[in-house]
Specification:
Chain lengths: 279, 301
């Protein structure tokens, strides 16, 4: 390599680092702001909006946990997230297995319609679902939103599981059939255990969706003690408009589970969200 | 298997023709309730109207009303303006992915950081950016500190800047998804061709313009379509938490307008007609996507 080449290389390496550092700062700044603001006193925030907290206070967190309904909303979010994911995973695994293992009329149509439903805007569906929920008494009930979230998640989940099930060697299924396994046994004892990575990925991606969803929760969970965290937060924000550190503490509490999940399972997020797209 | 459960023996005796449908039934039931029934409902409700003679019947009054409504055009224009964020975030994401791909020191850490906004909830991002973009927020403070007072705006509160501001926040959150997607594709490319090009003296631009990008067209198309759909059908939470659709209707988007008509104005017919229009536009995009993917789909099934 010539010296000219090498010098250009050094400049280019430095420039790339600089570009990445700038983007990283932009990506992290709002998160940093959330953190430092949540540990500030209100007085400190008014005078030093951007610096480190001085003094550091935990008051905002104790206030956020005691003055609003955040613990209750947190609990509701956990219930809704866990239940929706459980239902979606089971229902989608059955459907995906059927699409991969059997040849039957309507198979391709069924799979194609899953892809189409993946992108139907929830805003299109809320009014009829609301009218339906009123008629069957599912407004203001966690069950109602669990059913809706499960339905919304099924198309993507089926799509992801179909892609994964297809990558398993067919010889395995044939061998199982020869050994006298029923199809259900094959799904339960062979396909699912082998699909653990795909299922874990699916759970993570779906958890992210349900935990962060606003519109449906807003429409269907109207009484304060039934809200999940996201509509709860917007309510909380309205109550304490002028107390930014308190709002940021509430926001941080609502985000923490997903940040932790991300820090421990970054790979799963990356794999789940790129699954099916990169082939 | 030695331990046979009763359920398994029951399934074993089922005729082969029924069995696949049995597995599909639970999913079909959910899809029917959450997608198919509501879509039929809005189609019907959008055509159901109060006739001038006091009776009720089917007709196109709801559609006529929305096409005569000046706010509707403003709302459509707002969604339209948000679409400009898609090419910007695609180019930025591509650029970052290529930079990361060249094995910059610490690339995995950078990838982790750049992707992080994508896991934050939209209401959380929205709430935080309302402060950052406020009159005395960090952006304006920085601009004033640099002596650029003329560039400091009321980003969220002014009708002119509110859509670009929301677009910027969407780019902030969604770009990381593109970076990760593109990077995953880049890493699956055949490296020998790139190495050969380097030996032949191709520069950075030639290498990527003629070798990398053409091979990435499928994933770029995928990202662009996903983001176009996002701009039409998933921006409610940004608008709701950042502006409430205002000032005036300056940041009202289709989803928000449907929600308003359905629940605040209590006009289900108009809400349904708007929903049908939105569904129509997204359907066009879906068909486009399916056609683009038809090849890979045939391979999938």
């Amino acid at each position: 390599m010539s010296t000219r080449h090498r010098r250009e290389n050094i400049i280019w390496v430095g420039m790339r680092q600089l570009i990445l550092i700038v983007f990283s700062i932009v990506a992290l700044y709002p998160i940093y702001y959330m953190f430092v603001t949540a540990f500030k006193t209100r007085d400190d925030w008014l005078h030093h909006q951007f610096g480190f907290p001085n003094p550091i206070t935990f008051q905002n967190f104790t206030d956020a946990l005691s003055r609003g309904n955040i613990p209750l909303w947190f609990q509701n979010s956990v219930v809704v997230t866990v239940a929706s994911i459980l239902i979606t995973t089971i229902v989608s695994a059955l459907a995906a297995y059927s699409i991969v293992r059997f040849r039957f009329t309507g198979r391709v149509l069924y799979f194609n319609s899953m892809i189409a439903f993946m992108v139907v805007p929830p805003a299109v569906l809320i009014l009829p679902l609301f009218v339906f929920a009123v008629n069957v008494g599912l407004v203001n009930s966690l069950t109602g939103v669990i059913i809706i979230y499960s339905g919304l998640l099924i198309p993507f989940s089926v799509y992801l599981l179909v892609s994964f099930f297809r990558s398993l060697p067919t010889e395995l299924f044939d061998a199982a059939a020869i050994d006298g396994c029923t199809n259900f046994d094959t799904l339960w004892r062979i396909t699912l255990p082998l699909s653990t990575p795909a299922i874990v990925t699916l759970v993570v991606v779906n958890a992210l969706f349900v935990w962060n969803e606003l519109l449906i929760a807003l429409v269907f969970l109207q009484s304060e003690e039934l809200k999940t965290l996201m509509p709860g937060l917007t309510l909380f924000k309205g109550h304490f408009t002028l107390n930014e550190p308190l709002i940021m503490a509430g926001t941080l509490i609502a985000t923490l589970p997903m940040i932790l999940l991300y820090l421990f399972g970054q790979r799963l997020f990356v794999e789940g969200l790129t699954a099916g797209a990169v082939k | 298997m030695s331990r046979m459960k009763p359920a398994s023996t029951f399934l074993a005796r089922l005729p082969r023709t029924i069995e696949p449908y049995l597995y599909l039934t639970p999913a079909a039931a959910f899809i029917g309730l959450v997608f198919i029934y509501p879509i039929i409902w809005i189609l019907q409700s959008s055509l159901w109207q109060n006739n001038p003679d006091g009776t009720k019947g089917f007709g196109f009054t709801n559609y006529r009303l929305i096409f005569e409504d000046p706010v509707f055009y403003q709302v459509v224009a707002n969604n339209g303006k948000l679409l400009f964020a898609v090419p910007i975030m695609t180019l930025l994401a591509l650029f970052l992915a290529i930079v990361l791909f060249e094995r910059v020191r610490g690339w995995m850490i950078y990838r982790g950081i750049v992707f992080m906004p994508y896991i934050l909830a939209v209401p959380v991002v929205g709430t935080t950016f309302v402060y950052l973009l406020g009159l005395n927020g960090i952006l304006n403070t920085l601009l004033r500190g640099l002596g650029l007072n003329g560039l400091a705006h009321d980003w969220i509160g002014s009708a002119d800047w509110v859509i670009p501001s929301i677009a910027a926040v969407i780019i902030y959150r969604e770009m990381g998804f593109g970076v990760v997607l593109f990077l995953a594709r880049l890493m699956s490319l055949d490296k020998e061709i790139l190495e050969a090009a380097e030996i032949d003296g191709a520069n950075w631009w030639q290498k990527h313009a003629y070798i990398t990008l053409p091979q990435m067209s499928a994933v770029i198309e995928f990202f662009v379509i996903v983001e176009l759909i996002t701009m039409l059908s998933w921006v409610f939470a940004y608008v709701y938490t950042m502006t409430g659709g205002g000032p005036g209707f300056a940041s009202t988007v289709m989803e928000f307008y449907i929600w308003k008509h359905a629940f605040a104005y209590r006009s289900p017919g108009i809400a349904s007609a708007l929903a049908v229009v939105l569904l129509g536009v997204t359907t066009v995009l879906i068909v486009l996507q399916l056609r683009l993917r038809s090849k890979s789909l045939e391979e999938t099934l």
